[in-house]
Write a structure and sequence with these properties.
The chain is mostly helical. It has one domain. It has two helices and no strands.
Amino acid sequence: MKNQDFSVAVLTNQAQSNVFVTELYWRWVEAETVREILEKETRFLKRKALKAPDTEKKIAQLTQDLQTQQEKIKLLTTQNQSSQAAAASAAEDRDRIAAELKSFFRIHEAKG
């Protein structure tokens, strides 16, 4: 692989990592929003539970939905942390390779 091709491959990898981290972040934000909405609905319905017997069934369903969203948030948080670590590692690799390329070109310029 040529030096320029290698640099492009490294930068492409970094860009893909950045996109992945951003996507995970927005999924987490969306899951958090849904969780907050479900919590508000659950509190509201619990207050109305005494007035309507069918409400208890809906509360049970919303509680289960809330638990599902909380599990999703935990999973996405873990994935986000892993992605951030991978992105940081890729950035370190990019910086190291860039330094090696500069050194390589300096050596060849000095010889040539």
